[in-house]
Structure formats: C-alpha cells, structure tokens
Write a structure and sequence with these properties.
TIM Barrel, 2 domains, Rossmann fold, alpha/beta
Length: 479
C-alpha cells in the first residue's frame, strides 16, 4: 500500500466509532487504533464495574487517541449501571422539577463518574421536545413537551458534563420528539413547517450550540420540509445547510448508530457511511452489530468513494480537523473523583408526585406489570423490589395475567401495582383497570410518563424507572 493509500485509509478509519463484545478490547480494535481509528462506543455489555472499565479505557488510550463514548443519560438509558439501574433520574424527572441548577448538578455528577472511568464523550443529553405522547423511543428521555423548558435544561446538562471535561453530544438532531416510529426499526417522519421546526425542534439545539456543546448527534428522521424522504443523518440540507449554515455549528457531528434499520434497510451500512460523511457528519457511530469484517468493508467503501468521486477528500480532512480539535479539548486525562453526593436520589425525591393518600402497608403484594424494553434502553432492571424487601413481588405479562388469582392472592393485604408507560400499552391499561375496579384502595406507581391515570386511591408518578426513582416512590409509599 502506497503512502497516499495509507493516508487515505487512515482518514477513513478516523471517522469511525466501533463497538465490540466483552469487557476487554479485542486485538483488532487496538491494532486499528494504532492505525488511526476514531474511537469506540461502549455498551452495557462492555461494562462490568468501574475498575474494569477504567482498565479497558486505559488499554484503549494506550493504543491511540480514541474518542471513548457511551450513552449515559441517567434514568432509563444507562450503561455504567446497566446491570442494576441508574442512581440518577432521567430527563423527564428533571424537567418535572424544573430546577436548572439541579439538572446541572446531576449531569456534573454523571460526568464525574464517566471521567473517573476514562470516558471522554457522553452521548447525552436528549434535547428532543417530546410532543408525541405515544413516542416509542424518546418518552422519559426528554425533559418535556415545552421547547423553552427543554432548551434551558439541555443547556444545564451540557454545562454539567463539560464542567468535568466530558464532551456532551446533544441529540437527536433535528428532533425525534414528534415521532411515533422508532428509528431503530424504520424511518420516522416529522412532517411540520419550517416555522414550527425552528420554534420547537431546533430551539434546544440552538441553545446548546450557544452553550458550547462539543458534539451533536444526528437523527435517522425524515423532515420533509428540509430533507424530503431522506433521514437527516444522510441529508446535506439538514447537516450542512441547517446545522452548519443556519445554526452556525462548527463542532463535531456524530451520527446515531448506523446499524439501525432506518439506514441498513434503505442504503446499507457502508453506503450510509459514505452518504452521511458527504452530508457533513464527522464521526460515525456504527452501533453494536457490525463485526470487524463490516468495519473493514466500511473503510474500504469510504476509500472507494473518494477514489471514484462520490466523496470529496476535503470532507474527510475537515472531519479529521474537527475531531482533532475535540481531542485537544479533552486534554490529558487526569484522575477525577466521582461525585458521591446523593444528588440523584435528591432529584428523584423532588420529582416524584403523589395523588391521593397512601395507607400503611399490610403484608403488601406488589404486582409489577411487565413492559417490553425499547432498543435504546435495553434490558435494564426496573421495579420497586429492592426497596420493599418484605413485600411479595409478582411480575406479570399484562395480556396473560390471571386477574381473579391475583385478587385472591391480595385478599386482606395491601395491593400495589407498578406500571411503566401504561398509556402506550392497552393490555397494561386493561389489567390495571380490572385490578382497580375490584380493589379501589390499590396504589398505582407509574414509572414512565404519567399520561394515563386509573381511578386508584393513590397514584405515584416517578417520571422514570431508574433505581433512584424507585427508591423515591417507595419512600412516599411507606411514609
């Protein structure tokens, strides 16, 4: 391979954030980092405990200068606490409190934990204005449905993370909050006018850019007035025209995972990589599915696209310069003590809401209504069991639950029903309604968005299913 070929391959590899299985770095990842690979994205399956994660990130840094990223939003979407649930409430809870200083403190604490583990880019916060209650992918990940509220808390989150030198990655541009389709599965459409887009979806991104956000993540969402039927991730009109031009952003643009079906089923993984680079992206998050063979094929396709004129080499050089500037901002990693100040539980306690009155618990039966996890969240544990050790906990599938048997089991006992986003699942609503009709003294705990409310004696809204949310709910229940 000639020197020019090696240089071009290095530029192509420098745009990629790869993933891998396991808690140690494979040899191919370390080898590619030596040859200019942009970095890695870590997932829950890469995280065993803080000590082993620190060893992993140290090994990665020993091989190159990687961007080391993961999704740590607090709340439902957590990677550091994937196996136990987050000690921090998510954005919906912070939006319900609406104290920007609290949001800043929570994100500073999250950032300090990430920095202590060697993470330098957090794919957070979600700046989506969640105007669609039936949104299958955003929900409690959003600060709320009001653009001004989302804007001020997005700024606070950016400031909190970046105060400890962890780069924020504000997502999902130009807005995923008004959708009813999960872009992991298909291409959602935000069909609004340019005026609505500017006033609602773009407002938090404009504010985050003003606050110095170091990176912005694209959404695989079509906005017909800007992108036609093309997802924003692949649209020059969105990334270069709107984000770079109109909003004046000159930081790093990171793609959402390219292994999502909105990309793979439309233009393919390697084809999507070329198109998003041409559109203006700088770092391509490949997601957890692509193998090393896929990574090599993507690099080869980027090189081929430069050779045959589909991709301007200057675009790769521009991306490399932006990523280099981000690395310079990271500076030399210094030991950071993670903040163990209880701010997560404090925030969850401020967010939780009780309607009605609870009664002292008598041999409580807790029915947790199972809710399928979204792809973004993954299989993170949730529920109140850890905080009610003396209760009997029953997890049921809503469509298959035996209501008479459950009621018989609950006879002469306190009954607590725990649900998650009941407004999105008719089977959950039907089950809860049947239980409330027979036992109006039941307490219902909603661990998603409190959109649908049954007529129970007491109703507790947590605005999220993190560990901190569950503890705050149980404290109210047992007060």
């Amino acid at each position: 391979m000639s020197q020019s070929d090696r240089g071009l391959r290095r530029l192509a590899a420098g745009t990629l954030l790869v993933a891998f299985q396991g808690t140690t770095a494979p040899e191919w990842v370390l080898r590619e980092l030596e040859h200019g690979l942009g970095g890695v994205t870590l997932f829950g399956f890469n995280v065993a405990d803080p000590g082993r994660l620190s060893e992993l990130t140290a090994a990665l840094r020993g091989a190159g200068e990687p961007v080391i990223s993961l999704d740590e939003e607090g709340g439902d979407v957590t990677r550091l606490a994937y196996h136990v649930g987050s000690p921090y409430p998510g954005n919906a809870a912070l939006g319900a409190v609406d104290d920007t200083e609290l949001t800043r403190r929570v994100y500073r604490a999250i950032g300090s934990e990430l920095a202590a583990c060697g993470i330098n880019l957090d794919m957070a916060p979600s700046a989506d204005v969640n105007t669609e209650a039936d949104n299958p992918v955003i929900g409690t990940r959003s600060f709320g449905a009001d653009a001004a509220l989302v804007s001020r808390h997005t700024v606070a989150a950016v400031q909190g993370l970046q105060s400890v030198n962890v780069a924020a990655c504000v997502k999902h541009f130009p807005g995923h909050g008004a959708t009813r389709v999960d872009s992991h599965l298909a291409i959602p459409v935000v069909d609004v006018s340019l005026d609505v887009l500017r006033e609602r979806e773009l407002a938090p991104f404009r504010a985050a850019i003003g606050a110095g956000a170091r990176s912005v993540m694209t959404a695989h969402v079509a906005v017909p007035v800007v992108t036609g039927q093309t997802p924003a991730t692949l649209s020059g009109a969105a990334l270069t025209g709107l984000l770079r031009g109109e909003l004046g952003y000159d930081g790093v643009v990171v793609t959402d995972a390219l292994d999502m079906r909105a990309i793979t089923r439309s233009v393919g993984l390697a084809g999507g990589a070329v198109l998003t680079l041409a559109a203006g992206a700088d770092l391509l998050c490949l997601g957890p599915l692509p193998s090393y063979d896929d990574v090599q094929a993507i690099i080869a396709e980027i090189v081929a696209a430069v050779r045959d004129g589909r991709l301007d080499p200057a675009r790769l050089e521009e991306a490399a310069a932006r990523v280099a500037a981000l690395r310079a901002w990271f500076g030399t990693p210094a030991p950071v003590a993670a903040e163990q100040n209880g701010v997560g539980l404090h925030a969850a306690r401020r967010a939780v809401r009780l309607t009605g009155e609870t009664e002292p618990l008598v041999e409580p039966l807790v029915i947790e209504v199972d809710t399928p996890p979204t792809i973004a969240v993954g299989d993170v544990p949730w529920g109140v069991g850890p905080w009610l050790p003396d209760a009997e906990i029953v997890r049921v599938e809503p469509g298959a639950a035996d209501v008479p048997a459950l009621l018989a089991k609950a006879a002469n006992r306190s009954l607590v029903v725990v649900v998650k986003d009941a407004h999105r699942h008719r089977a959950s609503q039907d089950l809860v309604s049947a239980l409330v009709a027979a036992r109006p003294d039941v307490t219902v705990i909603e661990m998603g968005l409190p959109v649908w409310r049954p007529g129970s004696a007491a109703y507790i809204a947590t605005y999220g299913a993190a560990r901190a949310n569950a503890q705050a709910a149980v404290e109210l229940l047992t007060a």
